[in-house]
Amino acid sequence: MRIACERLVTRDEVLDHALIDLDGDGRVIAVESDRPGARADHVLALAIPGLANTHSHAFHRLLRGRTHAGGGDFWRWRDTMYRVAGSLDPDRMRAVATAVYSEMVAAGYTAVGEFHYLHHRPGGLPYPDHAMEIALAEAAAEAGIRLTLLDAAYLRAGFGKAPEGAQLRFSDGTAERWLERWHRLRGALASSHPEVTLGAALHSVRAVAPEDLGLAVGGLPADAPLHVHLSEQPAENADCVAATGMTPTVLLDLTGALSARTTVVHATHLTDADIARLGAARVSVSMCPTTEADLGDGLGHAAELHEAGARLTIGSDQNVVIDPFDEVRRLEGGARLASGRRGVLPLGTLWDAATTAGHTSLRPGARTGIEVGEQLDLVALAPRSARLAGVRPHELLGAAAADDAVASIVRGRYQDSSALRTRAWDAFEEASHGE
Amino acid sequence: MRIACERLVTRDEVLDHALIDLDGDGRVIAVESDRPGARADHVLALAIPGLANTHSHAFHRLLRGRTHAGGGDFWRWRDTMYRVAGSLDPDRMRAVATAVYSEMVAAGYTAVGEFHYLHHRPGGLPYPDHAMEIALAEAAAEAGIRLTLLDAAYLRAGFGKAPEGAQLRFSDGTAERWLERWHRLRGALASSHPEVTLGAALHSVRAVAPEDLGLAVGGLPADAPLHVHLSEQPAENADCVAATGMTPTVLLDLTGALSARTTVVHATHLTDADIARLGAARVSVSMCPTTEADLGDGLGHAAELHEAGARLTIGSDQNVVIDPFDEVRRLEGGARLASGRRGVLPLGTLWDAATTAGHTSLRPGARTGIEVGEQLDLVALAPRSARLAGVRPHELLGAAAADDAVASIVRGRYQDSSALRTRAWDAFEEASHGE
Q1: Average pLDDT over every residue of B96-121
Q2: Buried b (16+ CB within 10 A) or exposed e, A16-55
Q3: With an 8 Å Cβ cutoff, are B337 and A296 in contact?
Q4: N or C end of chain A: smaller count of CB under 10 Å?
Q5: Measured between alpha carbons, how far is A290 from A317 in angstroms, rounded to an integer?
């Protein structure tokens, strides 16, 4: 297959009349520029690399546009979310994830990290054959997105509290049993869905006891991506300090959870010492600005974390908004609101967040440029979007919107955004059926 | 003309199978509901009332996607904006305003308040025949948006400082001469563009001296809308207190500028006493969240102002983003980030902000429902937008995006959003020509 891009904008370059040849497996054979008028299977007027979504809870999509009247705080929202979590089976999970992942690809995300904790039947009895996890893998295949399944250890309700209610579906009981299931899942995916990257997650310091953090980390392969919710709300910091005498960051660091393969999610309420520690560990940070505004979490510390050496990435988290460009604009905008300065994060850092750093958070060592030998990911943008008129090529990342994405190529597979949006609608209808 | 809405969602109602009859002037003759299958000139699957944009500087659109690398603060951004302001003539002003207003109507805004200070030639010599103001009126007519032209008094660079550079184009020299021009402009618009509402603006306490504030307010008709920038940046508060011993809010109040016909813009950095005073005066507040993030202004005081009795509205201001739904989502989101609570502003208040309160800020006494005798404004949304699947009718205002608007009716005139976006592109090209 041959793809022509009248203009291809990457982090550092603007290539005009680029021509990309792919083999039958979607791998790049050759990239040339300055080849105007060449014949191609698809001609993209304006293209950028595929964008990475490092934090998603697919099923939270069912809450979009349904929680405003409830008011309250994060914890009241969580009660509503738990009611939805309690109602899902593998079929509905597959349907809602297909809807969400299709909306993501339509918007320009070509890879997603699914932070997954809804493992078991109501009450906690396991499904046979990893039914929930396979449902997510099937949804990703249907939508055509690269999936990193971040299977989460969720073992308790909070410091010294056993899981209850919907949380019984999340828990494997002990760190050892979670690890056992994780390794079995790895085997199952390797045979049925080799395209899925299996990663791991520690839900949070609330949900995994200090002694289990070390156990869990030690039982994972060294190359598995490891994600963890960190300091999203002040209350979880206070509980952690009260129970352990440490901030969540310090606790995670001392149990070996912080390293270059780690992505901490949110990292909203940190001390200066936390920021220095996260930077020194070279972690990635998944900032989820649309969710953090929706849940009233706070503006976070993007500029300081970047300065300290952490790698910023973006996530759509609860999927109330699925728009990578909005996340980027809010990532920079939040840093501006927090500092009263403009252009806080260099443009290259915003590109890294949406592309390289994001993909690396999901697949350590990923080669994510338009590189010979790699399966191609690209996003095609509308050539004459009124929104982008006059915008400088490298600033489009903070000026575009989801609807400017008109087509995507993931692993060499071309899909129209409009067809993906129709599929998202249909799958959502299926997920809501009988609700 | 007859408009059918399969579903019409207003602040308080959800009408199914609504039928709206219009006379030749676009005025509503009758509204009925439960009339499925009736013949109509336009069938809208999902419609909402027209949305109001209470604060726009059309020409700032030329800076979209061009200032990130500059960094700095608000004041450095202003230098860049002044360079653009220095380069415009009436033809380019008409072209860029046509682009911006077309993008607005495409996105669901049916009325705009243009806060206009670029009056004169470079150096300050007047154009003949109100050329800049007529250019804006023509642009609004071309785009089909309701225009309230807020002609601004801008008389000095700051406390005790004469205007300089681009500001020479803004200034009429004295409050008397500004008033004189304002009244002449009123006559000129009444004959050439009777569809335009002429309002007035005091640029800010920086740009109008205390003695001139009272003069200006006193010389205006009591029914003219009056807008003023208020406390966008801490530095202007400090300067005002240093020069007058008063906060900008107190100064405006003591000079008679605060009343129910007044809209204060931004109101980001206020004291508790300021908030109480603004509430007691029953002012409207134009919150411009996408701009306030872009310029690093701050999160503001939406919840407190609402609580105190002020009426919230939304504005696109510098037009880096033109998306009323995004402004609404960020209005509520900013209140959540500031408070750590959810559902801070009642849904009805968000609807008021985007509709009734906004329209009233632009046309005091406006009847802005779907009302017999009034010219009809409506926005048609995509019937099967994946983004809106599952969203409750009254929550769509905070869940939709500009691209969900597929058509608009303003004063009874129907326009497709896609045609408007093409017009926006073409007009922007014209505005950038030779740049």
Answers
A1: 98
A2: ebbbbbbeeebbbeebeeeeeeeebebebebbbbbbbbbb
A3: yes
A4: C
A5: 8
**How remote is the C-alpha of A334 from its chain's centroid?**
19
Q: How many CA atoms lie within 13 A of B336 on its CB side?
A: 25
Q: How far is A218 from chain B (nearest CA, A)?
A: 36
For chains A and B, what is the number of CB pairs under 8 angstroms? 199
Q: Which helix (H) or strand (E) holds B42?
A: strand B42-49
Chain B residues with CB inside 8 Å of A268's CB? none
Q: Does the distance separating the beta carbons of A234 and B342 come in below 8 Å?
A: no
Tens of pLDDT, residue by residue over B46-100, are 999 999 999 999 999 999 999 998 888 999 999 999 999 999 999 999 999 999 9
Query: What is the predicted ipTM?
Result: 0.97
Average pLDDT over residues B282-294: 98
Instruction: Measure B217 CA to nearest chain A CA, in Å.
Output: 32
- Per CB-CB distance under 8 Å, the chain A contacts of B332 are 68
Q: Give yes or no for a contact between A319 and A98, defined as CB atoms under 8 angstroms apart.
A: no
- Write the pLDDT tens digit of every residue in A22-55: 999 999 999 999 999 899 999 999 999 999 999 9
User: Which of A68, A292, A323 has the CB atom closest to B398's CB atom?
Assistant: A68
pLDDT in tens, A197-229: 999 999 999 999 999 999 999 999 999 999 999
pLDDT at A434: 59
Instruction: Scan for tokens 């918007």, then name that residue.
Output: A107
Task: Please give, rounded to a whole number of angstroms, the shortest distance from the CA of A70 to a CA of chain B.
Answer: 7
State mean pLDDT over B282-311.
98
Structure tokens belonging to residue B30: 């009758």
Residue B340 in 3-state DSSP? Answer: coil
- Cβ A399–B320 below 8 Å, yes or no? yes
- How close, in Å, is residue B121 to chain A by CA atoms? 25
Q: Which of A178, A98, A95, A99 is nearest to A140 (CA)?
A: A98
Chain B residues close to A11, C-beta within 8 Å: none
Q: Looking at B151, B212, B317, B323, which residue is catalytic?
A: B317
Transcribe A308-359 into DSSP letters. HTPEEEE--BT-S---HHHHHHHHHHHHHHHHS-SS-S-HHHHHHHHTHHHH
- Whether the CB-CB separation of B100 and B58 falls below 8 Å is answered with yes
Is A317 annotated in the active site?
A: yes
Q: How many CB atoms lie within 10 A of CB B307?
A: 14
Chain B residues in contact with A425 (beta carbon < 8 A)? 384-386, 389
d(CA B396, CA A293): 17
pLDDT value at residue A368: 78
Question: Which domains does chain B show, CATH number per domain?
Answer: 2-49+370-431 (2.30.40.10), 51-362 (3.20.20.140)
Comparing CA positions, the residue from A185, A180, A201, A77 lying closest to residue A136 is A185
Q: Is A266 one of the annotated active-site residues of the chain?
A: yes
Tell me the pLDDT tens digit for each residue of B18-28: 999 999 999 99
What's the one-letter identity of residue B235? A
Helix (H, G, I), strand (E, B), or coil: what is residue B403?
helix
> Distance between CA atoms of A63 and A61, rounded to whole angstroms?
5
Q: Which of A274, A294, A317, A377 is catalytic?
A: A317
Phi/psi at B167 (nearest 5 deg)?
Answer: -60, -20
Best CA proximity match to A25, nearest among A47, A1, A55, A49: A1
Compute the distance between CA of residue A179 and CA of residue A213 in angstroms, rounded to an integer: 11
By the 10 Å C-beta count (0-12 exposed, 13-18 middle, 19+ buried), B186 is classed as: middle
